[in-house]
Amino acid sequence: MKLILLQDIQNIGKKGEIKDVSDGFAMNFLLPQKKAVLATTKNVQNIKAEEKVIAKKVEVKVAVYQKIKNTLQQQTLIFAGKTSDKGHLFQAIKIADIIKATKKNFNINLEEKWFVDFIALKDLGKHQVWLQLPDNNRVLILVKIEAI
Questions:
Q1: pTM for the predicted model, two decimal places
Q2: Which CATH class is domain 67-147?
Q3: What are the boundaries of each domain within the chain?
Q4: Phi/psi zone of residue 31: left (φ > 0), alpha (ψ -120 to 50 degrees), beta?
Q5: C-alpha to C-alpha distance for 16 and 4, rounded to whole angstroms
Q6: Hey, what CATH class is 2-62 in?
């Protein structure tokens, strides 16, 4: 019996694949548990349409990540704050501050989980901040901290 798998099934196949399985396995396990549907012409067309929609969403996300990379690569964010005599900020620059600055300056929304090994910035000068985007691109943002 030909079925379209609705989820990954070990030793059978992955979601969206059309597989030929025994009638008993299909009738007693896959169909009642809604892990597969019959591979009718209509169902096959629906699956192909869903795959096109998913591919389009992935394409849009990749374009967004590429835009983020191209916009932020080698950009410098400048922060100013009150400092002690030794040149340490009284209030450290945190991830939230960098996210807010990129939103304000470049209209780009970053996520906290994209920051790689970030430690709050407390010293004056230039610092490197690395982002790991979901498409595995790494982006370097330069942060410059000045005294008020």
A1: 0.69
A2: alpha beta
A3: 2-62, 67-147
A4: alpha
A5: 6
A6: alpha beta
